[in-house]
Design brief:
homodimer, alpha/beta, Ribosomal Protein L25, Chain P, 2 domains, 6-stranded mixed β-sheet
């Protein structure tokens, strides 16, 4: 069944006030008639079965989640890469269950993106949430300086800064030696050319642990997907004990 | 220093017969003069320091590998996805150290790609080898039926078939309970809609183990990158013991 994302504020009693765009999508693109059913997620973990009712929609049922979210919230701090590659990072990391994406302007970031780009990322996160049948949309923050991002992170969390070509312990090893599901997990991935020494020093003062993603030389677009893959695999292992 | 990929057959004594395309790239695009230096990899693990010498190039030195290849060769069997997404799979999996990519025509493969596509994948693998500073280009095979691919695999290898939404043990758990670096590793990833029951049965008769990549619902383009990320992380952990 087709699924759309709504804002919680669109719900009033058992009705959803559809935006003109949503109404057009449901009735013109999907060609749903009155009483035609679809699913709606509100981005906070609720999934509803709905029916078209004139210009709006009626909620028929709150459906039990089909796919669980991973228990510890995962935050990705990602230095903005060149070009349009951040789109792909947002899409793949949303599939992989990220809860918060913090695009960072780092010393080696070349271009600060336009507000249009930021809105595009939010839309991509929403689409990827629907496609991957997640119930919670990740939050994509507006790009900010790394320094400011680091200063606003929760103290009690597992924080890992990935550095290429370093002699650091592997992310998987670090994750597997932590309790892992008791605290939020924060992963920071650098730009083309990597983090500057000053940025690494700053991260250390914010209690980040320096980790490696292995001996491969990864593009900036591949590294976050690799890191998230390792994080989710390590969490799955804890949730589903070895048989 | 700029790097190009040559075929081993281009080397004769200490000289490399450059193709017109390579010569153009070195002298026109990179603007190297006579005696200008560049690096060449031959796709089999050798890295050479070279100098332009008239229409050809002279090998100055065989350079010690900078970045090691992972010891067990990794083979990816990947059912062809819709659209042009296989390009991205080839690129990212090359970065991640795959040695052999076997595009598979499965029951749910919709379109058999043209020979041009196949040549394009080989070119992408070569480019990604250079960019990720690997010394060995992965082999990309021509698309073949899954049945034929499975029948030609080496017997002595670790074989994992990834299935979405199954109740299988996690790939990471399976890898960590194996010796891992003593035998080749073969990972099979299905198409949109997954493997058919007949294909799963066939894989079982070829001694594949059914594994999960976790509770997330991944696109066909994301799944191979996630699987390879987990494989390389597990290998790294064995190579670099916990401190």
């Amino acid at each position: 069944m087709q699924r759309i994302t709504i804002a919680p504020s669109q719900i009033n009693d058992n009705y959803i006030s559809l935006t003109p765009e949503q109404h057009h999508y449901l009735t013109r693109v999907l060609r749903l008639q009155t009483d035609g059913q679809f699913q709606a997620i509100d981005g906070t973990g609720q999934l509803y079965l709905c029916e078209i009712a004139a210009a709006n929609a009626q909620i028929i049922q709150l459906i039990t989640p089909l796919v669980g979210e991973l228990p510890p919230p995962i935050t990705l701090i990602c230095a903005l890469p060149k070009g349009n590659n951040f789109d792909d990072i947002v899409r793949a990391c949303t599939e992989l269950g990220v809860m918060t994406i913090l695009p960072a302007i780092s010393d080696r970031t070349l271009l600060v993106p336009s507000p249009q780009k930021y809105q595009r990322w939010c839309k991509i996160a929403q689409e990827a949430t629907e496609q991957s049948e997640r119930l919670t949309s990740p939050t994509v923050a507006e790009p900010r300086a790394l320094q400011r991002i680091l200063s606003e992170l929760p103290d009690r969390s597992y924080k890992y800064l990935c550095e290429a070509r370093g002699e650091h312990p592997h992310l998987l090893t670090c994750l597997q030696s932590s309790q892992l599901i008791d605290l939020p997990i924060i992963i920071a991935i650098g730009p083309e050319g990597g983090w500057t020494p000053a940025e690494i020093q700053l991260a250390l003062t914010h209690n980040f642990q320096l980790v490696s993603l292995g001996r491969q030389i990864l593009r900036t677009i591949t590294a976050p997907i690799v890191a998230l893959s390792i994080v989710t695999a390590a969490i799955e292992q804890i949730l589903v004990p070895k048989s």
